[in-house]
TrEMBL record, chains A, B:
<dbReference type="InterPro" id="IPR012318">
    <property type="entry name" value="HTH_CRP"/>
</dbReference>
<feature type="domain" description="HTH crp-type">
    <location>
        <begin position="151"/>
        <end position="217"/>
    </location>
</feature>
<dbReference type="GO" id="GO:0005829">
    <property type="term" value="C:cytosol"/>
</dbReference>
<keyword id="KW-0804">Transcription</keyword>
<keyword id="KW-0805">Transcription regulation</keyword>
<dbReference type="GO" id="GO:0003700">
    <property type="term" value="F:DNA-binding transcription factor activity"/>
</dbReference>
<protein>
    <submittedName>
        <fullName>Crp/Fnr family transcriptional regulator</fullName>
    </submittedName>
</protein>
<dbReference type="InterPro" id="IPR050397">
    <property type="entry name" value="Env_Response_Regulators"/>
</dbReference>
<dbReference type="GO" id="GO:0003677">
    <property type="term" value="F:DNA binding"/>
</dbReference>
<dbReference type="InterPro" id="IPR036390">
    <property type="entry name" value="WH_DNA-bd_sf"/>
</dbReference>
<keyword id="KW-0238">DNA-binding</keyword>
<dbReference type="InterPro" id="IPR014710">
    <property type="entry name" value="RmlC-like_jellyroll"/>
</dbReference>
<dbReference type="Pfam" id="PF13545">
    <property type="entry name" value="HTH_Crp_2"/>
</dbReference>
<dbReference type="InterPro" id="IPR018490">
    <property type="entry name" value="cNMP-bd_dom_sf"/>
</dbReference>
Length: 258, 258
DNA sequence: TCCGGTCGGTGCGGTATGGCACATAAGAAA
DNA sequence: TTTCTTATGTGCCATACCGCACCGACCGGA
């Protein structure tokens, strides 16, 4: 197997499964193309599929009773969406929004839960990811509360950049404002500042990162912390894979989802 | 059994275990008295015990690289602390701080994980709780970002009040300020406003709730949402128990941890 | 009873952001 | 090209909160 499916998955979570576990799992997955702006779930919706990004990424967005929204997490090829399924729940309290278009593996909820029940390894993997998510969301809470917009925006751009292989990002100020929970004019100001410093370049819904190192300077520590959180998990999860760079927590460095 | 231990547990999670599961679990627990201000774990610490509050409560606090802190969740008799253990992790990224003194059951990490591995019912229970936690933390993130201090403080007081059976709360402005992530002077202002409205009364580290309904008015919707989140879980978890009041989501009402 | 420490009240200026509103510009469609 | 739509730039005022600083009030211990 592996040759009978379109292309071998590069989702980092699934990749770390031993061949014996991976094969039957993939047999129940299908490859789908996620499109930009696609809503996989609204708060309260039933979850039909667990989704493992191959080369796309998805935002998890909390919604308050008032309708105010805030992105609390992001899942790219290092993760998955559909966490409640792992916990035996069928509904999502978070909105799931496709932010980066591209292929993903998906598996029906029922099938996913079957596999979970049968494979302790798969379940362990999901648990480790869940632990990351928990820590990451907690951190996001504090970050959104304490850090200035410009730094948070830099962080967000870096995280997104990591998940899109350096392509230009397809997003408007309006959209960014809803992710970061500020008004659009605030984004314009922050973006202008970053652009003036030569860190990014943007025009009508397209942002390109021009100077990663500079952006890292401009971002809050949370970016580095996030990288560490994921690195730690990926190291635990795939000891087989040699993770060349990035191992020490202190110094700033980019996190390459590769 | 149950008569051989000091008193029957009233932790709502454990209570919902069937007798057959509860008995061996409790046999490995010990009752301990949590004291106010006790630090169960600092970020990064190993977790020695899972703790199930009987009549106390514990805050979970996120810490940023800068040292800034923000409370992201609270566990009373409706919950537990030591969630990472459920996920196979041994360390806590969050600080765990005892806020309400009183008895709790605790079980060593190893023993807890043993029970988890053997009892699918226990594990299911923990998963449901974990799901609640995830949703609750996500909501807290948005709440801390969007809502005004006074409303957040009202919410916090209500949540704490629910977990202390109407006793007066032992907390200083200084302390509250670190929970809510604002400076102390801000708490003084908000507290003064609430007191002027006759909702609370305070003096040197002691706060009493004078008018619950009024406080609910003053709090953000997040309080009601929180109650709903927990109610939903507890209903799922203990169908046996007749949960008399509180079932509909819309209207504001207090949540009685009883 | 006095002292020292903790806790709470208050003031002042600074700033990041909100709300609102409108002007401009760049693409897309016609 | 012209027109329309969407995206961005900007201005103005309001305000919630920060940082700092200091004072006064209460409480417990000596």
């Amino acid at each position: 197997m592996g040759s009978t499916i379109p292309f071998s998955p590069t989702n980092r979570l699934l990749d770390s499964l031993p061949e014996k576990e991976k094969e039957p799992f993939l047999a129940d997955c299908e490859t789908v193309e996620m499109t930009f702006g696609q809503l996989l779930a609204e708060p309260g919706d039933n979850i039909s599929y667990a989704v493992f990004p191959l080369d796309c990424f998805i935002s998890l967005i909390a919604t308050l009773a008032s309708g105010d929204q805030l992105e609390v997490s992001m899942a790219g090829k290092e993760g998955m969406v559909g966490i409640p399924l792992v916990l035996g729940a069928q509904t999502s309290a978070l909105q799931m929004l496709v932010q980066g278009a591209g292929p993903a593996l998906r598996i029906s909820s029922a099938s996913f839960q079957n596999h979970l029940a049968r494979s302790p390894i798969l379940e362990g993997l999901m648990k480790r990811y869940l632990n990351v998510l928990l820590n990451q969301i907690s951190q996001s809470a504090a970050c959104a509360h304490y850090h200035a917009l410009e730094a948070r925006m830099a962080r967000w751009l870096l995280m997104t950049h990591d998940r899109t292989h350096g392509e230009q990002l397809h997003l408007t100020h309006e959209f960014l404002s809803s992710m970061l929970g500020v008004r659009r004019a605030g984004i314009t100001l922050a973006a202008t500042a970053l652009q003036r410093r030569g860190l990014i370049n943007y025009q009508r819904g397209r942002i390109t990162v021009q100077n990663r190192a500079g952006l890292e300077e401009a971002s809050c520590q949370c970016y580095a912390t996030d990288c560490d959180i994921y690195d730690e998990m990926l190291e635990q999860v795939s000891r087989r894979t040699s993770i060349s760079e990035s191992s020490h927590a202190q110094d700033k460095r980019s996190f390459h989802f590769g």
